[in-house]
């Protein structure tokens, strides 16, 4: 089911099949050789990584072939839409690195033209008002192999249809009382042609047009026409719209001519393991408090991934890797995680933080003395420079890095054993102090003063190297350790278990009292990628205050899930 092989994901190394089709149109001089795409989010939720795939296609292809891409808010259902979503969508597209210039449009801008077109179709006998309930209409739809039944209202006079449609829009009738339907063919093998609904009555005010309209167009009646009104040449969308394409073309032909006609092309949507992608489900998680909000770092939303510390480049690289095909697939989230590690490895500033600290006292180091050691900011890129880190008599190391009775291959600290403190000295464990319950409170060590880098003993080899921070200088902070939100591979699959029962109970662990070296605390900012050496990639959470720094773990250094599955 998974498609992890990038080479099968893309038809040829060079262009995706969508790019090939667009290129052919351009070369054939269609639409005067213009290329204009659009990204059409419905402002009823935050964008998720699936949308990022569509954004990379819509904006990317325009960039590649010298065209333009419109941002069109598909705001045809005032019941679910909100300006909060409009703002977040804008921010997320910009963050991904794309721009729509002055081409920001709203389907609601076309309500007047769409209404005029509907009136025209009524006058031409191509649309009628149906007084039946939605249940009655659904019951007459038929099946793919059985024709539907014609509505008793199908043959109303043009005058009556016009009168009713106008009164529908004046608010005279209740929601659900009447709809406007296209009069096409109740026996058509394509169910979407069986007199599809064009308009329904909605009385909730619209976030842009207020109470001007009481009838709102359905997707199929709005989308292609909006494309046409905007001059869109290629309307690229996901595979579930393949079956809508004939209807798209049917309505668009009412407007278009030889010189210009938009064309719909479909690619496979992004589905990710351990993730739900439907906005409806994501909204449920938010509304039911199962996550902290749309931008909870465990969410697959762009804002969640941003807060978590994912970089735009890692998301775009991931989307390039999986490519665009004509077949549905479920992509492994480890491919995304790989892209994130790959990018963060190049850009993250290295530093030291101890997540589960235990104190080490270096008994032969002078009390009150401090020195500094120099640390690479990023060994992957020398131009990232270095920073200084204080060293003193008392330090913290990870509790896990010490064992009193270690197994054979334990290359960390143990009684009478030696390890190197990264960037500093070799220390040797001489004893421990325990509390009444036998828990280790402090570890005692001596250090080898000749073992610091630059000194004669620096070449001396020991098996283990530990990260550490100076106890007197370290800053206390909080870590939020995030993991996958769901514990099963395909939580979106239709099973009898509700997706909310499949949440990973360990998707967030909050650890207080972590110890962070001063430099990291000083430079930390939301979105700035950091690597806590030997621990993982982190970034500052916007909830931080100067007195309480909170670090989000973007991702661990290695894929612990892969190991667990072996
Ligand atoms: P829902 O999640 O409720 O199905 P939607 O994802 O269709 O809603 P829209 O705002 O209508 O939400 O989507 C805008 C555009 O993003 C559409 O062109 C749609 O095809 C595309 N898109 C949505 N989800 C994905 C996905 N998982 N992968 C690729 N493209 C997607
Ligand atoms: Mg949609």
Would you mind describing this structure in some detail?
With 566 residues, the protein is α/β, with parallel strands linked by helices. It folds into two domains: 18-267, Rossmann fold; 349-565, Beta Barrel (Ribosomal Protein L25, Chain P), CATH 2.40.240. Helices cover 27% and strands 23% of the residues. It contains 15 helices and 25 strands. It has a seven-stranded mixed beta sheet. Strands 19-16-17-18-12-15-20 form a seven-stranded mixed beta sheet, with no helix packed on it. It has a four-stranded antiparallel beta sheet with strand order 4-5-6-7. Helix 12 (312-322) packs across helix 13. The two termini are 19 Å apart. Adenosine-5'-triphosphate is lined by residues 40-42, 50-51, 53-54, 74, 237-238, 269-270, 277-280. It catalyses: tRNA(Gln) + L-glutamine + ATP = L-glutaminyl-tRNA(Gln) + AMP + diphosphate. Monomer. It is an enzyme of class 6 (ligase). Residues 134-154 are annotated as: Disordered. One of its GO terms (biological process) is glutamyl-tRNA aminoacylation.
